[in-house]
Specification:
- The structure holds 2 protein chains of 2 kinds.
- Chain A is built from 7 helices and 17 strands.
- An 8-stranded mixed β-sheet of chain A has the order 16-15-13-12-9-11-10-17.
- Chain B folds into 2 domains: about 140 residues, no CATH class; about 60 residues, no CATH class.
- Chain B is globular, with a radius of gyration of 18 Å.
- Chain B starts with 5 loop residues before the first helix and ends in an 8-residue tail after the last helix.
- In chain B, about 35% of the residues are buried.
- Classes of the chains: A alpha+beta, B mainly alpha.
- Chains A and B meet through helix 5 and helix 7 of A and helix 9 of B.
C-alpha cells in the first residue's frame, strides 16, 4: 500500500510570485516564519500544520504549498517531487524581510491642534483597592482602637480635613477607595480612556517621579509628594492631630 | 557615693541599644539613684504609651522601679556573683502589690529584656538557681514573656479580669500576633481576641493561626 508522504511533516513551504508580496502582510506577525526570495518567487517556510488551514493562509491567492520529503519538495497533495530542496537560499525572519512602511504624510490633514483629553471612563475590570480617602473625624474614633497588625501595612498622608490611607488590606470603614496604576491613584470603578497614554501623562505631570497623582471623578487631579507619605501608627496619628 | 548611676546606665543602655555593661559583683542601689531611674522610666513609658491603643493606664512608679531593679540584678549576676544561691532571694523579692494593667505595662518597660537574660543564663548553666527565681517572676508578668517559649502558665480567670482594660487587651493580643506565639492561642480567651483582631485577614497576616469556627 502506498505510504502517505505528508505523515510526519512538521513544516510547510509556501511559494508566491514576488508581485503579490503585500498579500503576506497578514502572516507577517507569526514570528516563527522565515522568508527568502528566489528569482521571481518568494518562499516562506516554517508554517506549522496547525497554521496551514487558518484563514490567514487560505486567503492568500496565487500561492503554492509544498512539503519537504527527503531532498525534494512535493506539492501539497501531490505524489511526485516538484522541486529540489532549496539549499542555497538565505532565510531571514519574515517580520524583518517585510518591513512596515509608514504611510506618506497627508498634506491635507488640518487637525494638528487637536488635543487628547486626559479623561477617565468607567471600567468593568475589577482591581484591588489600595488607597482610601477618609474624613479625619471618622478616623479619630477608629485609629486609636485599631490593633497594631492592621495599621502596620498602611501608610498615610493628611489632605485638608481628610486622610489618604495607602496600603493593603485597607481598614473596613466607609470611604472613597482608589486603584493604583503606576503613580496614579484612580477612583475605584474608573480607568483611563487611553491607558496606553498613561506613561506619557505620568511623565508630563510628574516629571521627576516624586509624586503620587490622585485622580478625581470630575477629571481633576492633585499631587502628593511621596516623601510626605508616612507609616501609620497610633502615636504618629495622635501627634498629627 | 559614686557619681555613676549604674542602674540607670544599665537600663538606659538596654532601652537604647539593647546592651548592658557588667559593673560589679556586689550590686547596690541608693534611693537617689532610684529616683533618677523612676524619672527616666516614666519618660520612657510616656513616649511609648503614645502608641498604645485606647487610653493608656497610668504609670506605676513602684512597679517600674521594681522591674528595673530585677533586671539590673539579673544582668549583674549574669557572669559574676559572690552570693550563695540561698542569699539570692533578697535581691529578687516578689512584687508586692495588686497586679493591674498599669503595673504590667509599667514593668514591661524593663521586664521585656528578662527572657533574653534568662536564655543567656540557661546557656551558661541550665541548673542555675537564678534561672528558677527569674522564671518564677516572669510567671506573674506573662505579658513580657510572649514569644520567648518560656512555657508560661496562663491563668485564664486572671487574664480575663485584666482584659477588661481595652488598652491592655489590645496590646497583649498585638504582641501575640507580632511574635506569632501560636502556643498561646491554645487558651480560649487569647484565641478569641486574636481572631477578633485578625478578622477576615487571618490567612494573610498569620497563616498558622486557624480561628475556631
Amino acid at each position: 500500500m502506498e505510504r502517505d508522504l505528508t505523515q510526519g511533516v512538521t513544516e510547510y513551504w509556501l511559494r508566491l510570485p514576488s508581485k503579490y508580496k503585500e498579500k503576506l502582510a497578514q502572516i507577517r506577525v507569526w514570528k516563527s516564519l522565515r522568508m527568502s526570495t528566489d528569482m521571481d518567487d518568494i518562499w516562506v517556510r516554517g508554517i506549522a500544520p496547525s497554521q496551514l488551514n487558518s484563514p490567514e493562509i487560505r486567503s492568500i491567492p496565487f500561492k503554492k504549498i509544498y512539503f519537504q520529503h527527503e531532498n525534494a519538495l512535493f506539492l501539497l497533495g501531490g505524489n511526485l517531487p516538484e522541486e529540489r530542496l532549496k539549499t542555497s537560499l538565505l532565510w531571514s525572519p519574515i517580520h524583518k524581510a517585510l518591513p512596515v512602511e509608514t504611510p506618506e504624510y497627508n498634506f491635507n490633514f488640518f487637525e494638528l491642534d487637536a488635543k487628547i483629553g486626559f479623561n477617565m471612563v468607567p471600567s468593568s475590570q475589577e482591581r484591588l483597592a489600595v488607597a482610601q480617602l477618609i474624613p479625619l473625624d471618622v478616623l479619630d474614633e477608629i485609629i486609636p482602637k485599631m490593633p497594631a497588625i492592621r495599621l502596620q501595612c498602611l501608610n498615610w498622608v493628611i489632605i485638608e480635613d481628610k486622610a489618604l490611607l495607602i496600603g493593603s488590606p485597607l481598614l473596613s470603614i466607609p470611604g472613597k477607595t482608589y486603584w493604583q496604576n503606576q503613580n496614579f491613584l484612580l477612583p475605584a470603578g474608573y480607568d483611563f480612556e487611553h491607558p496606553e497614554l498613561s506613561t506619557y501623562f505620568n511623565k508630563k505631570v510628574n516629571q521627576n517621579g516624586n509624586d503620587m497623582i490622585v485622580m478625581q471623578t470630575d477629571h481633576s487631579y492633585f499631587k502628593i509628594t511621596k516623601e510626605n507619605i508616612q507609616k501609620l501608627t497610633i502615636s504618629g496619628y495622635r501627634l498629627s492631630r | 557615693m559614686s557619681l555613676q548611676n549604674n542602674i540607670l546606665q544599665t537600663i538606659h543602655h538596654l532601652r537604647t541599644s539593647g546592651q548592658f555593661v557588667l559593673y560589679t559583683n556586689k550590686p547596690k542601689v541608693s534611693t537617689s539613684e532610684l529616683n533618677d531611674l523612676a524619672d527616666f522610666l516614666e519618660q520612657e513609658y510616656e513616649n511609648e504609651s503614645l502608641n498604645y491603643p485606647f487610653a493608656a493606664p497610668e504609670f506605676h512608679k513602684e512597679a517600674a522601679v521594681w522591674a528595673a531593679k530585677t533586671i539590673y540584678y539579673a544582668a549583674q549576676f549574669l557572669a559574676h556573683r559572690m552570693e550563695e544561691p540561698k542569699n539570692l532571694g533578697k535581691f529578687f523579692e516578689d512584687f508586692k502589690g495588686e497586679i493591674s494593667p498599669s503595673v504590667i505595662l509599667s514593668t514591661d518597660i524593663s521586664l521585656r529584656f528578662l527572657p533574653f537574660i534568662i536564655k543567656e543564663l540557661e546557656h551558661i548553666d541550665f541548673e542555675d538557681w537564678l534561672v528558677k527565681i527569674l522564671k518564677k517572676q516572669l510567671q506573674t508578668f506573662s505579658y513580657s514573656a510572649i514569644g520567648h517559649d518560656m512555657n508560661e502558665e496562663i491563668q485564664e480567670e486572671k487574664l480575663a479580669k485584666l482584659f477588661q482594660n481595652d488598652c491592655f487587651r489590645t496590646l497583649f493580643t498585638d504582641r501575640v500576633i507580632a511574635k506569632k506565639d501560636i502556643s498561646l492561642t491554645a487558651h480560649k480567651i487569647i484565641q478569641e481576641n486574636v481572631a477578633i483582631q485578625l478578622g477576615e485577614h487571618s490567612n494573610q497576616f498569620w497563616r498558622a493561626f486557624v480561628p475556631e469556627a
